[in-house]
Amino acid sequence: MIRFALTLLFLVASGLALAGTATSPSVTEGNNAVVTFDLGYTAPSGGVEVYVSANSATATLGTDFTVAASQLGYRTIAAGNQTLTVTAAIISDGVTEGNEVFPVAFLENVSSNATFDGGATEWSDKTIRTQPNVDFTSSSPPIGNNVLHIQNKEEPYRSVSLNSGTDYDIEFDWSEANADGYGSYCDDSSVYSGFVNAADRLVLQVIDTVDSSNNVSFTIDNNMGNGAAQTSGDSIFNFQGKISNLSWTGNSAAQVKFVVYDTTNRQYEGYCGYVIDNFRINKSPVQTTVTISDPDTTPPTVSISSTTVTSGNTSNDSSIALSFTLSETATDFIASDISVT
After folding, report:
1. Distance CA 164, CA 193 (A)
2. N or C terminus of the chain with fewer C-beta within 10 Å?
3. What backbone phi and psi angles, to 5 degrees, belong to 105?
4. DSSP string covering 137-193
5. d(Cα 5, Cα 105) in Å, to the nearest integer?
6. By the 8 A CB rule, do 289 and 57 touch?
7. Angle at 192 between CA 189 and CA 196, to 5 degrees
8. Is pLDDT of 87 > 90?
9. Where are the domains of the chain?
10. What is residue 89's predicted lDDT score, i.e. its pLDDT?
């Protein structure tokens, strides 16, 4: 199953290598806004999951519009289908407010629950022992070409179609592996961003800090090397990519670690161990908006005030006037809409 994430602005994300689209409706108060998301391709076996969440913009969730719980969270486009609809109820509050908008975003998760090449096991059902391979210190981090050594005998690699120059968030759930001699001093992190080349086999990269008070970030350059599969030995991936923008805050002595996957669960004394699960590659969202049209149909009022002139008072002969005043509750009418003769 392929997973997407959607936040409220009806936004569009592409499915694998194909771009999806979403409608951008304009509706009046008291009606429903129906947004249709089109994958751009037919959902494969297992379907495609889309995550829906709602946010406020100039239109406020709960005040100007609502979205039923059944429309939110993970939604599945069944195998053989291509579209998904999301319905938002527009609240008629009796207050003229002019046009308002709110966003819905479809954030594609390119690889969650996707099977590996060479096997049927899904990543989300597979836990992988890890241990650090390369340690850096903040005093002089060698951020040139560093090797990330991947071992996975059972499932050689996961091949994903990606767009060159597109920003992706790499997400995964991990926990400390305290058993089997693994260390217990590791903290948790979850999201990293970077650039990857189209047609490259993406290699998971994990960075950790010893001290949980530290935050680490990095960028994968768009010119990174191809993670080609090896044909012999335990080494399935031998990835060499330039890591840039390596930075952290907090304890200056924090260690930054890359990891090795090891399906034999071998013990590495003195190293930090993890269990990795639910690996996800999220494509950065593309957004569109839903417009709530709330025109002011109440006509304005016009008042006329007169000027009193005393008979025979020639000094007021040139100042006789009638004053027309336009008033309304909203802003759909302007003074120039009225012509007076």
Report:
1. 14
2. C
3. -120, 135
4. ETTS---SEEEEEEE-SSS-B------TT-EEEEEEEEEE--STT--S------EEE
5. 8
6. yes
7. 150
8. yes
9. 2-109, 123-279, 301-337
10. 93
Whether pLDDT at 288 is above 80? no
Residue 251's alpha-carbon distances to 139, 248, 337, in angstroms, are 11, 9, 67
Q: Say how far residue 25 (Cα) sits from the centre of its chain.
A: 21
- Which of 29-33, 295-299, 318-322 shows the lowest mean pLDDT across its residues? 318-322
Please state, in angstroms and rounded to a whole number, the distance separating the CA atoms of residues 8 and 21.
15
Pairing state of beta strands 255-261 and 128-137?
A: antiparallel
Q: How does pLDDT run across 212-232, given as a tens digit for each residue?
A: 233 333 333 222 233 333 222
Q: Which two tokens mark 205?
A: 């990269």
- Is the pLDDT confidence value at 178 over 60? no
- Cα–Cα distance, 73 to 53 (Å, whole number): 6
Phi, psi dihedral angles at 54 (to 5 degrees): -115, 140
The class that CATH gives domain 2-109 is mainly beta
* Per-residue CA distances from 327 to 252, 306, 332 (Å): 65, 17, 11
Q: Give 25's DSSP letter.
A: -
Q: Residue 340 and residue 290: Cα distance in Å, rounded? A: 40
Look up the pTM and report it.
0.43
| Residue with the two structure tokens 């025979």 | 312
